[in-house]
Amino acid sequence: MRHFSRLLVGFLSGIAGALVVAGLFFLTSSARESEPAIKVETTPVNRDAKLGASFAPVVKKAAPSVVNIYSTHIVHIRPMRIPTFVDPFFRQFFDNQFPNNGRERTRREQSLGSGVIVSPDGYILTANHMVDGADEIEVAIADNKKEFTARVVGTDPPTDVAVLKIDAKDLPAITLGDSDQLEVGDIVLAIGNPFRVGQTVTMGIVSALGRSGLAGFNQYQNFIQTDAAINPGNSGGALVDAEGRLVGINTAIISSTRGSEGVGFAVPINMARHVMERLIAGGKVTRGDLPILLQDITPGLAKSFDLPDQNGALVSDVFPNTPAEKAGIKPGDVIVGLNGKDITDVNSFQLAVSESAPESSATVKLLHNGRPETVTVTLTELPVEVAPSGNDQKKPGSGNSMIDALAGVKVADLEPEVRRQLGVPPSVRGALVSELEPASNSAEAGLQYGDVIMEIDRQPVSNSSDAVKLGRQARGDQILLKIWRRQGDLAGTCYLSVDNTKIGK
After folding, report:
1. Which residue in 71, 235, 260, 442 is the catalytic one?
2. Is 5 an active-site residue?
3. Is the pTM above the cut of 0.85?
């Protein structure tokens, strides 16, 4: 079963436009790993301290822990053969054009990135895309004066975190900070080897926290955003606070030039540490899962559900015979907390669930009909996700009824053939959206051609006649719709709130 709470975000809202991502140049040992001796300090920086004239003491403390990583890929090139139609007498003239005729060639491609020593006995944190699929990995420390062959302890592509190990002792391990203590405006330094010029330190501030929803980036996004210059070669390097403690692993930038434009991202060290500990303990990361359909709360939905604000994740569908159903979670509930952590949106819920162990009990705080409730649910294990197939759907027939309150929307009955084409379960009753004007307020709210309207303002819809009747009766600034939708191999219900103030304007 896929992680529906993540997929529904792209399912409903998506991200318009494309971001140009630079700095993303994207062997596990079966032996039992020893636990690293990691030093962690959780106290926040002293924000009342006066800014000094130099950060040299901070750099001297942190820079020795940042290493260069050279990852080599062996590329196999298929042999080029002399065309068979060439006469043997003339084949000698093709030898210069086909010098390796019949023989496979190989080419070594090398990438340069950075990493951070986190324990004196050789554990190193870096970005997964730096070592993914590498045939050889070399680590250079002490300004390239010492080199070691590294092995991969484990990788976690969803967070872009990898753990390496070199055979060495008494290494200058960095002190880990607490990324949860960071605040926007805190000074940070980025340390790495950009453009192969050698170890470089740049300074900036924390520009934002909890960045997510960025196209082309990691699956689990809770980025620290910084304007400290991060360039190709900085990937996997250190983001440290004003006391030289590691608070993030630099991972990528948004740029139109492949160079820093002041929008860089780092994986918070608390997330990276969580992944590292599991990779060292078992070679892989297992994550908890609560397979339900969730959606972010828009201003219209907050008004329709009479919510005090937009914080939380709205439950749009609960699958039968699942832990969520057994725990009493229902469509229309709003999840506001999980295991003591506040849930502000779908992404924060996904992160909180993923940090919990499979088969563990989770305490879920929610609002049910506006009333706070707490339930306990047993988490399942998150399987490897498979992207929706994106198969083209056969379009249903033309509509026959216009809904007055939803300008630009025509609906039709769910005929048996249409049900079969769209894969609508027998339990789903409603009216099919057969025509939709792209510029309508309903389309702006997220309604799509092929959706099935199941409720209008919490009143059930059985067919197109019901939809037309309830549409005429709709009152208020917002019209709340409950719909069923299929996209690829993902299907379920969700809520939409249509702005009724634009009708006829």
Report:
1. 235
2. no
3. no
